[in-house]
């Protein structure tokens, strides 16, 4: 028997008359990161990357994932699962189904794991060829032994000295929007939007301080649907002061089913799951719109920005200590990738207001860094040596903000090619960091700035240049971002107060990977008289490795930028360093000069 | 009586029970440029810009147009028409209608002047508030005395030595597409697509060598709907050799009304008019897709490209002669903007294979050039003097291609600001011209390259950086182009063989305007080993005015680009110059140097 899980699944598919069953990577809130309980696709296929969809028929078991995960998927996939390489971000398994199935065939899904938008697309595509989509619930539930339980951590208040804006003010902002738009209700389905609105945080998903819940707001009421056990009496008391009504999590479908004909509900079709949608009476008017809370949440005010700069300083201190430790320790002994990642976490843990890491560190030596989303292995450890380049992409959750920073450093001698590529990536990073642009400019207009120097040498990298980042929330958040693709995030204009990462890279498979990432905040250009131009302020504070720079490739303005950045890092970080660290910092931030 | 036309129109609106009547700028093929016969909006309002929509109610007469035309509209609009300034490219008059009208009100339109897409958007928007769209035909027809007749010029064959690809091959290409996609018919509604397919040109619209017609292609037949008088027996004979069936123009609606249930028609909803759409039986399957011919047409092959380079050389010779004449003549006497434009046309007229100009020259002195779409006035002539800057944007129709070129030149002393702005625009032009980018890159990704230097000084320009351009066809053609906006043209990836203009500018209202425009063709990068990178080759040949360059602002690579470009212009153009012109050319193309 090749694969028992698959055999049982196929049996129940046969009983139900289902030709294909789709297992997406999703929870019922369409979260980017999901809890262990929802990792059905990983359990079924063996592949544990964050993105991928499995499709099972009687004679095929396939896993569709994107280029970030091709190497990992080939290593992890259990037989007989086969890898289908996604060429685009589209759900290409639909095209496969169209080719494999016949008119009248039935495709089974668990509709609570599909957003309304995903379901509509799947259904419309298959309908064209007479293929039927049918809701059959979770067929894996009876098979999955030892399924991890749903987490039931306690929710806690995000203190107002960090949240800055009281939840009552946020709710009022939402109600003003409802009345301006003539909507009666808004249903929030994305967990980070609810956490933001209620100034509440939790522990339901690793690295993401979220509380599994729904929230329905109308002109008078705020209904918060959550497992009662997650809400302590202290938190409940605090919520009730602002007239938040705590309701059982599961009661949301019943409440939605009682919406009246005169009601007009606005909801985001990319995060509302299909099962919940089906509860809403047809008579009630439903408006699908990207959630307005995404934008409210993305624009941080001045007070939040100073808390954020402080969190970034704490994070920069930890990163400096870590890099100083690494570059000295590596001369003494080999260090495993896992240990290096853990040490980065260790130094973060010493910092004030630290609440945990914001994602598992990508700690990757030489060729391992060629996978942008590499995950170091404990079982087959790879050891860093005093030679070549090492990449660490890591971040923390602080009460005053979420951080995300990548540094690529020389651990010893590096090649001429490595220096050139590091410098090309750095030039792109700097061009984007220095850019000034009119209001209305979107990420898709600016993304190429970080690529021009690579492109001139026929090189490129296969991911977007940057993403929005939360404020003690998700490490990835919308609505904005840098990308070449005409996807939603890249089509949202930048506004003052938006945080965004700047992380170009270069990946040479089998050899090495390079990435340089700082967080920036969009600001009004102080020199713009009409206030119609914007700039970015870099708010990550950690040296860029001068040993990897080919100074002859740098323009004078780029050298000035590097020196000014390093001077700022030194000014901010130096007072937190011990004597050994201070010497390292001084050396790492001393000015570079062009040899004429 | 303030406005007789309006009074009569309002009377018939009253009789029909119509609260508002919309007069768009359109013919029945949604052509960008329209013949005099269709210029109803211009006749009604007095405003003759190419873009604008009039809306008339009983107590308001409004004209909506975009920023290119604000100044012109204010000068030309007849009372009581009021200008509504468009903030976006959206039809904002719909929002106005939503505010002004009440539920149950009727909006009248002539449905042959609305594309299916426009109609759907209008109807859906107004329906939300219970406002009804009603087809009432052309209410202006009975009022419009002395309406210009429909042009009935003869169609002529685009000789195969210029067309290069026989129509039979193009039709076969289309049929392959139909069978690949499982469509039975394609209806071509855009006049330039039909002209391309049939290797036919005409004279129905000024500057656009088009034949008013429709064309329906299925797996066996090609039906060409055109006024019989336009087709000479010689042309007819040629068409019949390729089994093209000439049908009366008006019979297209009858033929469409007989499509069968088993048929599947593909058509472009942005150019099919609503009246024609209404003729198609509901039972027939209709697929709306951007016309595939747009893409076929946009990608020119190597033989077409050499013809195009030759046409550009002819055009460059004319432009050099013109600029040489202008810069010498202006020292003797004032020259009117109109005369200067006519002289550019005169020099083009001396060139081989010249078939007419491709648009009315924009001949603009100093502050007049601050309107990107300025049209010089014969009634109130403006005279060029040996002082300041002059802009001329002009082009020709040649058997081997359509040209479009803009030069801004010093006629005498210029200000420091004018030199700086010219140089910033030039730097943007060069950065785009030198760019190298991976396959898949779109205009929206590259548009900013031409703006970075302006942006750094808080400046910008209000139009896209460039458009596709036809091959002895329309001066503007899709599907690609450079723009900051997420409009269709900017989201189409560049492919080798696509022509595109590169025309950044800077406009200082009340002072001066600057634009530098060349045509480029997308090419595979010869240094790209995997063939996965593309570049642009500049194919317009005329000097850039060195007197307007602030060399201190130019980078070394930019100076190298300018010198190489000028050397190429000299090599190509010089043998066509008379001795006086040769001296001018030599001087105009001599290398520039940086003073260190």
CATH topology type of the largest domain in chain A: Creatine Amidinohydrolase
Architecture (CATH level 2) name of the largest domain in chain A? Alpha-Beta Complex
> For this entry, what is the oligomeric state of its chains?
homodimer
Name the largest protein-protein interface in this structure. A-B, 28 and 28 residues
What is the CATH C-level name of the largest domain in chain A? Alpha Beta
Principal-axis shape of chain A equals: globular
For the largest beta sheet of chain A, what order do the strands appear in spatially? 4-3-2-1-5-6
**Could you say how many structural domains of chain A there are in total?**
3
| Fraction of residues in H or I helices of chain A | 25-40%
Strand content of chain A: 15-25%
Rg calc of chain A: 25 Å
- Helix/strand structural class of chain A: alpha+beta
* CATH homologous superfamily designation of the largest domain in chain A: Creatinase/methionine aminopeptidase superfamily
């Amino acid at each position: 028997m090749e694969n028992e899980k698959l055999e049982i699944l196929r049996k129940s598919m046969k009983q139900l008359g289902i030709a294909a069953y789709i297992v997406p990577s999703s929870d019922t809130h369409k979260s980017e990161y999901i809890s262990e309980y929802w990792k059905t696709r990983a359990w079924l296929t063996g592949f544990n990357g964050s993105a991928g969809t499995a499709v099972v028929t009687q004679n095929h078991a396939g896993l569709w994932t994107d280029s970030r995960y091709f190497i990992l998927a080939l290593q992890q996939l259990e037989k007989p699962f086969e890898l289908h390489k996604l060429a685009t971000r589209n759900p290409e398994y639909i095209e496969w189904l169209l080719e494999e199935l016949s008119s009248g065939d039935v495709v089974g899904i668990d509709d609570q794991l599909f957003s309304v938008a995903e379901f509509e697309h799947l259904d419309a595509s298959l309908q064209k060829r007479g293929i039927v989509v049918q809701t059959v619930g979770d067929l894996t539930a009876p098979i999955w032994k030892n399924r991890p339980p749903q987490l039931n951590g306690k929710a806690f208040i995000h203190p107002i000295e960090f949240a800055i804006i009281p939840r009552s003010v946020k709710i009022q902002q939402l109600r003003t929007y409802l009345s301006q738009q003539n909507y009666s209700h808004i249903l929030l389905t994305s967990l980070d939007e609810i956490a933001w609105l209620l100034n509440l945080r939790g522990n339901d998903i690793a690295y993401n301080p979220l509380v599994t819940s729904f929230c329905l707001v109308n002109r008078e009421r705020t209904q918060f649907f959550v497992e009662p056990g997650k809400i302590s009496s202290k938190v409940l008391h605090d919520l009730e002061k602002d007239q938040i009504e705590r309701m059982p999590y599961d009661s949301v479908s019943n409440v939605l089913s009682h919406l009246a004909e005169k009601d007009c509900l606005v909801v985001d079709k990319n995060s509302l799951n299909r099962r919940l949608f089906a509860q809403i009476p047809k008579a009630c008017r439903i408006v699908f719109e990207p959630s307005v809370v995404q934008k409210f949440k993305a624009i941080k005010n001045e007070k939040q920005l100073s808390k954020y700069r402080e969190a970034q300083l704490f994070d920069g201190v930890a990163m400096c200590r870590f890099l100083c430790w690494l570059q000295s320790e590596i001369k003494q002994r080999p260090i495993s990738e896992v240990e290096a990642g853990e040490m980065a976490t260790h130094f973060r843990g010493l910092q004030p207001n630290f609440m945990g890491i914001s994602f598992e560190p990508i700690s990757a030596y030489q060729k391992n860094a060629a996978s942008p989303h590499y995950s170091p292995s404990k079982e087959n450890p790879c050891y860093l040596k005093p030679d070549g380049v090492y990449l660490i992409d890591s971040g923390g959750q602080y009460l005053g903000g979420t951080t995300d920073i990548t540094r690529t450093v020389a651990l010893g001698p590096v090649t001429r090619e490595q220096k050139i590529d590091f410098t090309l990536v750095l030039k792109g990073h700097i061009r984007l960091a220095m850019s000034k642009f009119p209001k209305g400019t979107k990420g898709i207009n600016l993304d190429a700035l970080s690529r021009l120097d690579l492109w001139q040498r026929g090189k490129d990298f296969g991911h977007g240049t940057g993403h929005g980042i939360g404020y003690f929330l998700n490490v990835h958040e919308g609505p904005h971002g840098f990308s070449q693709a005409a996807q939603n995030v890249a089509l949202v204009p930048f506004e003052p107060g938006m945080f965004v990462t700047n992380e170009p890279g270069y990946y040479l498979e089998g050899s090495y990977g390079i990435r340089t990432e700082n967080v920036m905040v969009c600001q009004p250009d102080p020199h713009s008289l009409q206030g119609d131009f914007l700039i970015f302020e870099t708010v990550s504070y950690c040296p860029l490795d001068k040993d990897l720079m080919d100074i002859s490739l740098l323009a004078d303005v780029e050298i000035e930028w590097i020196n000014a950045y390093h001077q700022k890092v030194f000014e901010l970080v130096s007072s937190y360093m011990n004597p050994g660290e201070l010497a390292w910092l001084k050396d790492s931030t001393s000015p570079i000069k062009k040899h004429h």
